[in-house]
Amino acid sequence: MKRKTLMTLTAIVGTMTRRDPKAKFLNVPSLLALVAIFSLATTPSYVLAQGNMSGERYSIFWSEMTFQELASAGVTVTSTIPPTQEHIDEAHRWGIKVCPYISLYKVIDTSKGDLIDDEVLVSQSPFWKAIDGYTTGHPEWYLRKSDGTISRPFNNPSYPQPFQEASLNHQSLIDAYCQGVRNLMDMGADGVFVDNVCNNSTYCYGPQYGYPHDWPELNNVQCYDIALQAVRTTMNSYGNRIMFMNAGGSPPPSQYTMYGDCVMWESFMWRPGGARRSPYTWDELKSKAAQFKSVSDSVTPLTYLPNAETVVEDAFLSYSWATLVGMDQWNATLPEWNTGLPARRDIVRRLYRVNTGEATSDLIEVGDVAYRQFENALIVTNHSTEPVEFQIPVSSSMGSAVMELFDMCEMEVVDGQITLILPAESGRVIVSRAEGLDNLLREIEGQSLAARLYIEEQFADDPDMTALIEPLEEIEADAAALLTAVHETGFPLGADHFTLIEVCNNAAALPTPDGTDAFLIERLDNLRNHADWISYVTPEPSSLVLLV
């Protein structure tokens, strides 16, 4: 390609992608011509990103849950899991889409070492294998600093090997990125999670050290634009696919977001291993949220819950703040580094299940309390450092009795209002009584299934363990049956009431066999706890004779 032509096309890209940071539609014929000339696309057409994740529920990490457990929480999309055929097939078994981790900011050099990681699996990933500069013989793919040394990601010498920062001014590297994505799509992946969607190092000094660039007029940032477009086009040749884009704690450049479906706000509220206190005030968080929403209609904040001992309060505060400032997704990863403390995966599942519906009021702020009414939920936060008692109106559509999901407490609506005692820096989610019971029953159903599947897989020859299968099946079936009736007026009445009693009794009576491992203990404990909560929110709690 002649250099003059390339510079003209680069100017076209700049005009189309930088004019309006909110723009979702481009001059498609011009872009098609551009793609054809660059020869970067795998098909002759370019399909725009969907830009709407409102019908999905996303979880970036497993937090040591199975795909079945994620599905029981309503999760429909996950990413950053081992990109193997086995994991993709298992996710699809439970109706979950898979978007493996990739990055166009980095390449690998396996001569420097290897990384075996549950999230990235460099040595196994069909994406990373395609961009291994060592095995493929492409030393020019490494970005070189002015002194000729290879740049480590984020200029961090201790960044895990074998990652190196990428020099994107090479057709061969862009082709390799596209091949890596094709490898994932051919395995059945439903999209990709693109990490490090940020302005890379602007300059690569490779040509001064014997590694010429294919497009000398372009810097590394401009080439990133080309690479991102090529990957999106490659992915779209497989039909409707999802692209998550993570730029860390700041919104990505607006010209990049046109290629993605959802932008991640990483380290929302807290960083991994950090203190519980949020780095943002309430006003700062609102301002930051507006910045993210200015570049994408769909934003998912990722919360690294900082402390296992306060994980419930942390999760509810993070979820409530995210929902109130207009995020259409929320996901969290649990503090696994705090070994020996309960991770409370059930709390994350409980919040994933909340279906707020559309907002029916503006954000209302009264002093240090902020709240908003949605079709199916009332979200409230106290962003002060002191506890607050507050009366809040509740939509009549939620009924005369509502449930607060933090402690599964039923609350009476008096004169259209409820009274909440909000601890310092806290968030609360109020739903109708039916929605609260629905959430509890889905946890019971999902955990009984998780325990049963685990026993069948791990203890098929152990009669003491397999004796649990039948009662678990009964609990699962009863909970599923009740879910069809839970939204009826007056639930539970008649046969449903007796079925609910049976669920509570059967769950309470489940033994914990000697020698049971941590996975099964957690699931059985969850069953008992959630059945116990149900016993306190039924019309006749005294009639529920629990066997504990």
Structural notes for this entry:
The protein has helices at about 5-20, 30-40, 65-70, 85-95, 125-130, 170-185, 220-235, 255, 280-295, 310-325, 345-350, 435-460, 465, 470-485, 495-510, 520-535; strands at about 60, 75-80, 95-100, 100-105, 105-110, 165, 190-195, 240-245, 260-265, 300-305, 330-335, 365, 370-375, 375-380, 390-395, 400-405, 410, 415-420, 425-430. Helix 6 (about 170-185) runs parallel beside helix 7 (about 220-235), helix 12 (about 435-460) packs antiparallel against helix 14 (about 470-485) and helix 15 (about 495-510) runs antiparallel to helix 16. The N and C termini lie far apart (about 80 Å). Helix 7 links the parallel strand 7 (about 190-195) and strand 8. The chain is an alpha/beta fold. Helices cover about 35% and strands about 15% of the residues. The strands form 5 sheets. Strands 4-7-8-9-10-11 form a 6-stranded parallel beta sheet. The model is unreliable at about 1-50 and about 540-548 (pLDDT under 50). The chain has 16 helices and 19 strands.
**Major sheet description:** 6 strands, parallel
What proportion of the residues form beta strands (DSSP E)?
5-15%
Helix content: 25-40%
Strand order of the largest sheet: 4-7-8-9-10-11
- How would you sum up the global shape? globular
Radius of gyration equals: 26 Å
Q: SS-based structural class?
A: alpha/beta
What would you call the quaternary organization?
single chain
Q: What's the pLDDT, averaged over the residues? A: 84
Low-confidence stretches at least 5 residues in length (pLDDT < 50)?
1-48, 541-548
